[in-house]
Design brief:
Helices cover about 40% and strands about 15% of the residues. It has helices at about 15-25, 35-40, 55-60, 65-80, 100-110, 130-145, 170-175, and strands at about 5, 25-30, 45-55, 85-90, 115-120, 150-155. The strands form two sheets. It has a four-stranded parallel sheet. Strands 5-6 form a two-stranded parallel ribbon. It is globular.
């Protein structure tokens, strides 16, 4: 039932589109693409979207967030002019509580799609409520006045070992609830 692939950013756009075409999948390109490539592939039937950056609210916190936001807006303007049917957006973190709320809202209203990941299923006592997903998706819908697609990326993976984020595979019921 999958129809879209979001390959690692190490794949070139032409490589990702070739794989997508062979598999019958739409492709979401990661990171900014050169204008020439966008022109070349703007009508490619498998090119669905372009994620300019992964998790800007979390990764840019304490840095030049305004400068990066302006870079995104300039890139989106160029990309939408060159490839008008291409969705250009960011994928953000689920951090929607103050002080992050203002930046999360700015990032998630600026793209053609509001997109974020939310992985509340962790090992043992660190498991958070799946209600956190409703909070982030609800905010994304509200701040966009329900006029823009909301793409939620749920955790369907495991990250074993002693990491800062000890994710585990969700149960079938948790995945369905997500």
């Amino acid at each position: 039932g999958f129809n879209t692939m979001w390959p690692w950013p190490s794949w070139s756009l032409d490589q990702a589109l070739a794989h997508g075409q062979r598999a019958g999948l739409q492709v979401v390109a990661m990171n900014p693409q050169p204008e020439a490539l966008l022109r070349e592939y703007r009508d490619h039937p498998n090119l669905l979207g372009n994620v300019w950056m992964d998790e800007p609210t979390g990764s840019l916190w304490g840095k030049d967030m305004e400068g990066k936001f302006q870079e995104f807006l300039a890139y989106k303007k160029m990309a939408n002019a060159v490839a008008p049917d291409l969705c250009v957006f960011i994928n953000d973190v689920p951090w929607i509580t103050p002080p992050a709320t203002e930046w999360w809202t700015r990032w998630n209203t600026a793209g053609d799609v509001s997109c974020h990941d939310n992985y509340p299923v962790m090992h043992s006592a660190q498991t958070q409520s799946l209600g956190a997903i409703a909070d982030t998706v609800g905010l994304a819908a509200r701040v966009n006045r329900e006029q823009k697609p909301v793409w939620l990326i749920v955790g369907a993976f495991e990250q074993p070992g002693k990491s800062a984020y000890p994710f585990r595979f969700p149960t079938p019921m948790q995945l369905r609830a997500s």
